[in-house]
Amino acid sequence: MNKFQRVVAIVAAVNIALMLLFPPCLDSPLRRGVLPSFEGFYPFYLAYGVRRIHNELLTLQVLFVLINALTAWLLLDRRDARGMAPEFRHTRAIALFMAANLALLLAFPPFESYASLVKFEPASFDGFYFVFGDKHRRNFFVPLLYLEFLLVVINGLTLWLLFNTVARAELEAGRRILDLAQSLPPRQRAEIAQALGGDSDPAPASRGPRLGSGADRRRFKDPNYRGPERRKGGDRRRKPRLA
Q: What residues contact 38, with CB distance under 8 A and at least 6 apart?
């Protein structure tokens, strides 16, 4: 589990805890033959034993959070050739994720129930239906739709802030490690490079000159060569420029 996956798991756990703490409840109609309808969200310690919990709506809420968390988990579960988590633009990813969730909420919005012909009753939540289905002439249940949009935006902004914090912490840790490595002596840096899978030679400073490194004649003037020196400057390994 990388740091971004841990953030997604924590945010999903907090959302599910809030849903269980404030579950949707049904009303208790006084008239006979009237089915209970959605009444609102109440604290669990106040609604327990007094109101019936809307189990279907609560199940949909929990499944929505779990599906989003699992999708984000799978998208973040990637490794490069070195086994490290690859870099990604989390701002664009979160924006696309929010857009997909809002599009899904608009495709299946909450609808109001049919108006009663016997007695005036306030509009109540009836269910989620396809927006272009046979119930498209009915009104949206605006309070629940507004609450869904608000939760999606809050979760997206929370993930954006947490991902920024994690990314900045990783950059700061890498910068501190680099500063510490530069302050070490060359021999200790060579030992650390060897421990991390670098050169297998335990004493790189004691080996003699070889092609491409060391004091070879490409850097210094060859005493056996009597011709003009064609390379100028401090680094004579570079090829001369053609006129």
A: 24, 25, 26, 27, 54, 57, 124, 125
pTM of the model: 0.68
Taking only the tens of pLDDT, the chain with its 243 residues reads: 888 899 999 999 999 999 999 999 988 776 666 677 888 899 988 878 788 899 999 999 999 999 999 999 998 887 655 556 556 688 898 999 999 999 999 999 998 877 644 455 666 788 888 888 887 778 888 889 999 999 999 999 999 999 999 888 888 877 787 777 777 777 777 777 777 665 444 444 444 444 444 444 455 566 666 666 665 555 455 554 554
Which amino acid, residue 75?
L
Tokens of 143: 């309070």
Q: How many angstroms separate the CA atoms of 23 and 20, rounded?
A: 5
Q: Cβ atoms within 10 A of the Cβ of 46, count?
A: 11
Partnered with residue 140 across adjacent β-strands are 111
What radius of gyration, in Å, describes the C-alpha atoms of the chain? 33
| Cβ-contact 90, 163 below 8 angstroms | yes
